[in-house]
Design brief:
Helix content: 55-70%
Distance between the termini: 51 Å
Number of helices: 14
Structural class: alpha/beta
Order of helices and strands: HEEEHEHEHHHHHHHEEEEHHHH
Strand content: 5-15%
Shape: globular
Number of strands: 9
Strand order of the largest sheet: 3-2-1-4-5
Radius of gyration: 23 Å
Amino acid sequence: MNKKATAGVNVGVDVGKTFLDIYIHERDRYWQIENTRSDIGKWIKAIRRFNVERVVMEATGRYERLLYELLVEAGLPVVIVNPRNVRRYAGAAGQLAKTDKVDAKLIAAFGAVMQPEVLPPESKIQRQIKDLLARRRQVMTMRTMELNRAKIMPKAFQADYRRHIKFLDKEIERVDQKLDKAVKSEELWRAKREQLETVPGVGKLLATTLIAELPELGSLNPKEIAALVGVAPFNRDSGMLRGKRRIKGGRAQVRTILYMATLSATIHNPMIRDFYSRLVSEGKHRKVALTASMRKMIVVLNAMVRDGTYWGECDVKQAA
């Protein structure tokens, strides 16, 4: 058998609204196709004759969604990566030119060299929940903007703002109902949400966000799950310098909801409240204490899912 034909290949895709620029790193092959179901289907048939290790594309504001879904349906390994990581790779490689073809070639090289992990594909219900969560964030942003505008505009406009805010409140309620229905449609997810909600301070929004946006919950160790969420402090040392440890990276959507839940937990959750109060009494800045409490919260939730336990059954010291 031809070794070249069986060797794994890495495919890079530069996603645009209208076109997809595609490059195979190991074969020096390039395509440009339209970002349509028919063209993508034809290309998938052509790519099947290669031993595809991964198809790599950047997150581009949902223009990649159709390609992702069709690749998953075809059973091909696909990875969506952070564009910032690709740009940093380009800088390290000295790649200054930028065209669609060059970007596709760069993404393919990034996949071959960095070998980003191919995660299990998202189910349709998971994608639906993520879409609903994104819609909820959009409506919440609009509501906040309207509330801020109402504070600075003349009284003559207040009725307009109240009417629009009332409409947005109903829209949030409608999205929440759809989220609840979607989670209940999956028995495993419903049970998992009920398990997470036994923790004081954890409501439906955080539990649903963790289910959809953090499927790795319960499968990683404490350091890994904290780093994935973005609440793990990283050293900033060089030579004799010992810089402040800071959190960085992680999944912003999860971290934002976790922040709000931990604020509530510092009041209603005895474990988090005592932990937070102790850090503050020891002289820690309140923001640092809250971040540490967020880390403790996610580590405990991770241990609960891993061990299949409920609040009160989990060994907190062993979890951390």
